[in-house]
Amino acid sequence: MRILIFGINYTPELTGIGKYTGEMANWLASRGHEVAAVTAKPYYPEWEVHSAYQKTGWLTEHINGVTVYRVPLYVPKDVTSKKRILHEFSFLGGVLPKWFGLLLKKRFDVVIHVSPPFHLGLFALLYAKLKGAKLITHIQDLQVDAAKELQMINNKRLLDGLFKAEKYLLNRSAAVSSISLGMKKKIMDKGVPEAKYIMFPNWVDEDIIKPLTKEQSLRREWGIPILDKVVLYSGNLGEKQGLEIIIDAAKQFHDRPDVHFIICGSGGSRDRLKAMAQQTGLSRLSFHPLQPYEKMSALLATADIHLVLQKKSASDLVMPSKLTGIFASGGFSLVSALPGTSLYEIVDNYRLGVLIEPESSEALISGLQQALTTDLTSYRKRARQYAEQFLSKEQVLHDFERNLTKITGHEKQT
């Protein structure tokens, strides 16, 4: 098949949507498909264009068999709702003068639009209509719902317009995919028939991300005794997570010299969190940058307890991508989730961790006290088994490829 991908995030971003879009594209190219991607210069989650791309304009790269068209865009240092809107529309403006006309000279069988940003899909839809391609909308986050629930956008007229544009796009997609059952339900509620829906969860390469001993972890590198306890939050430091409660929890354990808190990652809230931590004078709360992929297993093995935190208002609008690595590494998770959400049900049904109320310092502290006095071996074993059974990269991508062949009519040829 000839496959075109529209998405603002892409390799070499280490976390979030870009990681999965890049891996998907690379895998499809390795299967012999012709794959191209229109994307931005890498900037996430640091919200700063990577140094290797800072002095470049529009450029074309060839990465692992994929033709990658890079677009310059505005990247705000301080991420606000208005600046984020400008950021996303600057990307759309960058696509139009350089790449869109070029792409119209080529014919792809299928266009995969990765959302967010959802309105990028209007370019993908226009291309699909003009060239007779099938459009697939893949939803990693329900962006408009999240903007409403998190009160990032409060203008009712604007929200109504965004929801109408989203519905227009979904109705004209040959298929709509997302990463969880909770998101599936919300998409069905938008009027998308189940026959058009594809379950396409985020995955993990369980042969690369695997359980390691504490001796193989980053503890020695970071000066943490092997027998001490480590509470780790790793990933995006954004507004959806409500990470201030980690600071509150660390205060409660300041008299435990054997308990260390680590925040590892980048994002819009990093500087604010660091300032809060410095004001408290906590000596065993440390910040580290995102680690390269080859260190991921070692990073995950550093922790006794992994924090997976979200605000109540983000329930089932996003699915924490960090979970795939935590499960594959045989990690124990302390998860904030509301009953009835996909995240809650997965953790509860398969007994993969301990669930706590979102946005509650008291609940987090209580959960930590429980986990620190519990033998977590059985949780870790079940987490690894879940990753192998349900999140295997090869299995997930083979299933998606089969759906692509059905949609494009290439089923007989494959």
Give the strand order of the largest sheet, numbering strands 1, 2, ... along the chain: 3-4-2-1-5-6-7-8
Q: What's the CATH superfamily of the largest domain, by name?
A: Glycogen Phosphorylase B
Give the fraction of residues assigned to helices: 25-40%
Low-confidence stretches: none
What is the CATH third-level topology name of the largest domain? Rossmann fold
From the coordinates shown, what is the CATH architecture of the largest domain? 3-Layer(aba) Sandwich
Radius of gyration: 21 Å
Q: What is the SS-derived class?
A: alpha/beta
Number of domains: 2
InterPro entries: Glyco_trans_1, Glyco_trans_4-like_N
Protein name: Colanic acid biosynthesis glycosyltransferase WcaI
Organism: Parapedobacter pyrenivorans
GO molecular function, one term: glycosyltransferase activity
Detail the topology: elements first, then pairings.
Blueprint: E1 2-6, H1 17-30, E2 34-40, E3 59-63, E4 66-71, H2 81-104, E5 110-115, H3 121-131, E6 134-139, H4 143-149, H5 156-171, E7 175-178, H6 181-189, E8 197-199, E9 229-236, H7 244-252, E10 259-266, H8 270-280, E11 285-288, H9 296-301, E12 305-308, H10 322-328, E13 333-336, H11 342-350, E14 353-356, H12 361-372, H13 377-390, H14 393-408
Parallel strand pairs: 1-2, 1-5, 2-4, 5-6, 6-7, 7-8, 9-10, 9-12, 10-11, 12-13, 13-14
Antiparallel strand pairs: 3-4
What do you see in this structure?
It contains 14 helices and 14 strands. It is α/β, with parallel strands linked by helices. It folds into two domains: 2-203 and 392-413, Glycogen Phosphorylase B (Rossmann fold); 214-390, Rossmann fold, CATH 3.40.50.2000. The strands form two sheets. It has an eight-stranded mixed sheet with strand order 3-4-2-1-5-6-7-8, with helices on both faces. Strands 11-10-9-12-13-14 form a six-stranded parallel sheet, with helices on both faces. Helix 6 links the parallel strand 7 (175-178) and strand 8 (197-199). Helix 2 packs parallel to helix 3, helix 7 (244-252) packs across helix 12 and helix 10 (322-328) crosses helix 13. The longest helix is centred in the N-terminal third of the chain and has 24 residues, at 81-104. The chain is globular, with a radius of gyration of 21 Å. The model has no long low-confidence stretch (mean pLDDT 91).
